[in-house]
Amino acid sequence: MDAMLKASNTMVNIDDLNRVAGKVVAKYTGAEAGLVTSGAAGGLVLQAAAVIAGKDPAKMKKLPNTEGMKNEIIIHKSHRFPYDQCYLSVGAKFVEIGDGRRCNQWELESAFTNQTAAVAYLFSPFITRRALPFRDVCEIAHQRDVPVIVDAASYTPPRANLTRFISEGADMVIYSKKKGVRGPQGTGILCGRADLIEAAYANASPHQFIGRGMKVAKEEIIGLVKALEIFVNEDEGLENQEYRRMSERAVDALIEIPGISAEVVHDEYDYLIPMALITFKENWEGKSRDEIWNLMIEEDPPIYLSDLGDPDTLAIDPFNLTELELEIVIERMHKIMTST
């Protein structure tokens, strides 16, 4: 907040600020270049603009009319999700591969045409792990000089993921910075190949092209850079120890309720920090999972449990909880789950 306050009282050249901020992003992601974006969604728009129009002003001015341009983005059917509309908003057309459950290598190989602009790949909790392995996708795409663009918006922490996807072959990666990094609410970071980041910025604010409306204020850019520096230097081991202790406290308070199981979960795919997972078993006789979720948000303050997992589970995510807030969560959840 101090950094953002100081920035609010300083006049800067926004191009110069973006270049300097981009160097910080590149440093911490291991990429050739970086850019602060208007959230992860804004970054997805710029990914698509960069691979379709590049930095050719004649093409950039036509967007979202992509007639005469390479405009096809190959994507696993199992990687379709609400935010992929950001790609379509630029004028991209999806070529889906796989059947929603699995995908064969030949399906990717046969999807390339002379209109292919990129291959999109999603890293997110609770999606299938039956998609083609990421390294293989990169290898197949690069053999055809096609870039791979990645949405990893919700995949930090762990901090290792900041550099993982670039090192495994991604050409551009977007991260949300309002989530795990705790940066300004409206920011994200885009990192990748220097030529593609240059093209993304050419399409972005303050330039008068398709990304003009997705402005990032100088205060947000400075705040994001400071938050990123803090994030990468924090002790993740100690952090996870604290999250585990808080999750264990929740498990201990709820595990005796008949008809449920409660455990601390932590893995590299779905539960990226330790969380308390509540599973409603076959002999559960209380309110439904969804009823409990709704009742938790109806009181003051509203409490939002994680309902992204299996339909018979709810999770308590300690990431942004204080000790007092955790106590409120536990007490309300226990009251709702034990009331008739």
From TrEMBL:
Residues 90-200 form the Aminotransferase class V domain. The keyword Acyltransferase does not apply. The keyword Methyltransferase does not apply. Its cofactor is pyridoxal 5'-phosphate. GO terms for molecular function: L-seryl-tRNA(Sec) selenium transferase activity. Keywords: Pyridoxal phosphate. It comes from the Bacteria. Pfam families: Aminotran_5. This is Putative pyridoxal phosphate-dependent enzyme. The lineage of its organism: Bacteria, Pseudomonadati, Pseudomonadota, Alphaproteobacteria, environmental samples.
